[in-house]
């Protein structure tokens, strides 16, 4: 871009997306005189999924606004909790976020996930078709115009990823109600009905079971339950309003 110059200020939490030279306040930025402020912000490295209010000389403008020479543009991060108003809150996670997908499902959050890399176009198409919020650490994927909605996952640590998503979207939590393998709903199952799927030791040691209505996977409070209970308890303590099951 080599046209009208503006002053661009990114919110502190958005500056990680920009190169070091563009992380200060009021960075001189050239435009082409025709591109929208949304395009200018994306050119600075910031996905629009992470952008909230845009102010030009103190006045709020839409992302489609075309900035003029000498204007001062302030870019704010998206408000938290972020409300999704056009569809029920449901997520779609890219191939690199499998652990996060399982933890969201553990908490009863609808989180679709593909075990194989189906490619950015297919993910964006599914996000639009199913009206799911696409979660990714890939800024290029989040810039695809066809996605329904998206959010950048800021950490590569699963604990921090979970806190980030729960804090940003405040989904309703219903632990132990969703299959962590396929995202289907769980229902209570008696031992006799699932006995042919259990090892003898499991049949002898446990009496309470749940089964997925979609993939028919069977769940019980086995060796990993204490670790899963910790995840549930910590999430409910910070983001929920009820005791862990």
Features:
245 residues, alpha/beta, five-stranded mixed β-sheet, 8 helices
Describe this structure in words.
With 245 residues, the protein is α/β, with parallel strands linked by helices. It contains 8 helices and 12 strands. It has helices at 37-43, 98-106, 120-130, 139-142, 158-169, 191-194, 200-205, 225-239; strands spanning 5-10, 27-30, 51-56, 59-60, 72-77, 91-93, 111-113, 133-136, 149-152, 186-189, 209-212, 218-219. Helix 2 (98-106) crosses helix 5 (158-169). The radius of gyration is 22 Å and the shape is elongated. The N and C termini lie far apart (56 Å).
Secondary-structure element order, N to C: EEHEEEEHEHEHEHEHHEEH
The gyration radius over C-alpha positions equals 22 Å
Give average pLDDT, whole number.
Answer: 92
Give start-end ranges of low-pLDDT stretches: none
Shape verdict:
elongated
Main β-sheet, in a few words?
5 strands, mixed
Supply the number of helical segments.
8
Structural class by SSE content: alpha/beta
The number of distinct β-strands equals: 12
Helix content: 25-40%
Topology:
Layout: E1 5-10, E2 27-30, H1 37-43, E3 51-56, E4 59-60, E5 72-77, E6 91-93, H2 98-106, E7 111-113, H3 120-130, E8 133-136, H4 139-142, E9 149-152, H5 158-169, E10 186-189, H6 191-194, H7 200-205, E11 209-212, E12 218-219, H8 225-239
Parallel strand pairs: 1-5, 6-7, 6-8, 8-9
Antiparallel strand pairs: 1-2, 3-4, 3-5, 10-11, 11-12
Helix pairs in contact: 2-5
């Amino acid at each position: 871009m080599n046209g009208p110059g503006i002053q661009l200020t990114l919110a502190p939490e958005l500056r990680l997306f920009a190169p070091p030279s563009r992380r200060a306040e009021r960075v001189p930025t050239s435009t082409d005189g025709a591109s929208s402020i949304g395009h200018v912000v994306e050119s600075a490295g910031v996905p629009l999924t992470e952008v909230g209010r845009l102010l030009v000389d103190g006045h709020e403008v839409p992302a489609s606004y075309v900035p003029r020479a000498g204007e001062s543009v302030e870019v704010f991060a998206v408000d938290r909790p972020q409300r999704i108003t056009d569809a029920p809150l449901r997520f779609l996670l890219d191939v690199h976020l499998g652990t996060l997908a399982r933890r969201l499902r553990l908490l009863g959050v609808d989180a679709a996930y593909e075990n194989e890399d189906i490619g950015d176009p297919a993910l964006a198409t599914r996000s639009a078709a199913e009206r799911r919020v696409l979660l990714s650490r890939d800024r290029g994927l989040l810039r695809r115009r066809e996605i329904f909605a998206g959010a950048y996952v800021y950490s590569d640590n699963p604990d921090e990823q979970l806190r980030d998503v729960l804090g940003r979207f405040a989904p309703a939590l219903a632990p132990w109600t969703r299959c962590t393998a396929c995202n289907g709903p769980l229902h209570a199952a008696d031992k006799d009905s699932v006995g042919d799927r259990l090892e003898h030791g499991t049949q002898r040691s446990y009496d309470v079971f749940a089964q997925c209505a979609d993939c028919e996977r069977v769940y019980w409070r086995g060796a990993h339950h204490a670790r899963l209970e910790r995840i549930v308890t910590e999430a409910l303590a910070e983001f929920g309003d009820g005791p862990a099951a």
